[in-house]
Here is the input.
Amino acid sequence: MEIRILEYFVEAAREKNISRAAEKLHVSQPAISKQLKMLEDELGTKLFRRSIYQIELTTEGQIFKRRAEDILEMVHKTKMEFETLKNEIAGDIRIGCAESDSIKYLARAIKNICANYPNINCHIYSGNGEDLYYRLETGLLDFSVTVQNVDVAKYDFIKLPSPDIWGVIMLKDSPLAQKEKITVEDLRDLPLILSREAMNGEYLQWFGKELEKLNVPVTYNLLYNAAVMVAEGLGYAISFDKLANTDASSKICFRPLYPELKSELSFIWRKSQKFTPAAELLLNEMKKLYSSS
Here is the structure.
């Protein structure tokens, strides 16, 4: 299975049309059609459903597209890494980030190295823990900032200075908005919008047995859409502070939980990781700024 064939497949899947894919890749349409048929034969499954006007991915094709995109990204990353070894310190650093105000600490380190090395480019991938760990494990990320507990057998890490505070995001005209802090009793029977990632962690820690009894019409993995739903009166979202816009112009506000619930964030990397000079610079800057925190 050649890289060139994966490029043909991914472009055809994106365009949903082999002729358009051929034009973009500057290859003949019969050549791509032949290679895609050979790819299906090699895998022993149909990757596309074909019609007169377009092609659509099968379920197997959707799975293979994600794998193909990961492989192509890894190939690009590897080429760029070797290019940077030939030249001055430059190149790409890929960092996964959980949603958190503590990303400001990472931003400060990036700002410092980019001021001295303008040919370094940092690429931020926002996502939940499962997705970021997958990308870190497969080498698609150099580092990740995570809320989850760190497996110290597999990862080295730096704790970021200040933890995130959990609380409830609600409409400003909600009766709960009159309270300074929110308890478990306050949330009974209310429609809650909860993070799927926190179900077996922070929520279980704070709610205890009450977690199974909650009214949860909606769950989320990233907060932006959940905050929009709160603003539309769908329910009450439980999340970190400082992620949603709760200023004077907003319809929503934030109130902390009581007893207080905090989550620490960690900047992590694989123990076996071999870094490019650019990534090594960022790691050293993070250690300089925060290792003693």
Q: What stands out?
A: The mean pLDDT is 91. The CA atoms of residues 145 and 267 lie 4 Å apart. The chain is about 40% helix and 20% strand. Residues 59-86 form the longest helix (28 residues).
